[in-house]
């Protein structure tokens, strides 16, 4: 099972959203750490975000990168679709 490291900006956003949405994101991150390779809906990003991946959790996007060597998921951004890519 991987470890999750959440960036300060993403953690602050998580604290501010309603509890049901927060729990959905936490469950998605937990499932992601259990089996990163077979998680459904992972999209490899391109362009300026090359090397990152994203998952969709309802209307939110979770942008992260996976360090296979250390087995750590680094969550850099969490936010609504329109704002997270800026």
Descriptive key words:
5 strands, single chain, 5-stranded mixed β-sheet, alpha+beta, YaeB-like fold
What does this structure look like?
There is one protein chain. The chain is of the alpha+beta class and 86 residues long. It has a single domain (3-84), classed as RelE-like (YaeB-like fold). Helices cover 34% and strands 33% of the residues. The chain is built from three helices and five strands, in the order βααββββα. The chain has helices at 8-16, 19-34, 81-84, and strands spanning 3-6, 43-44, 53-57, 60-67, 72-80. It has a five-stranded mixed sheet. The model has no long low-confidence stretch (mean pLDDT 92).
| Counted beta strands | 5
Strand order of the largest sheet: 1-5-4-3-2
In whole angstroms, how far apart are the ends? 31 Å
Instruction: Supply the number of structural domains.
Output: 1
The shape, in one word, is globular
Number of helices: 3
Give the helices and strands as they follow along the chain. EHHEEEEH
Q: Give me the CATH fold name.
A: YaeB-like fold
| CATH level-4 homologous superfamily | RelE-like
Residues in helix, %: 25-40%
Topology readout:
Blueprint: E1 3-6, H1 8-16, H2 19-34, E2 43-44, E3 53-57, E4 60-67, E5 72-80, H3 81-84
Parallel strand pairs: 1-5
Antiparallel strand pairs: 2-3, 3-4, 4-5
Please sum up the structure shown:
By secondary structure, the chain is α+β, with helices and mostly antiparallel strands. The chain has helices spanning about 10-15, 20-35, 80-85, and strands at about 5, 45, 55, 60-65, 70-80. The model has no long low-confidence stretch (mean pLDDT about 90).
């Amino acid at each position: 099972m991987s470890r999750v490291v959440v960036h300060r900006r993403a953690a602050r956003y998580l604290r501010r959203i309603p509890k049901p949405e927060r729990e959905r994101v936490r469950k998605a991150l937990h499932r992601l750490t259990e089996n990163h390779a077979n998680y459904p809906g992972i999209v490899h990003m391109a362009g300026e975000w090359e090397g990152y991946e994203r998952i969709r959790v309802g209307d939110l996007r979770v942008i992260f990168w996976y360090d296979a060597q250390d087995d750590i998921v680094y969550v850099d951004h969490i936010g609504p679709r329109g704002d997270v890519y800026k």
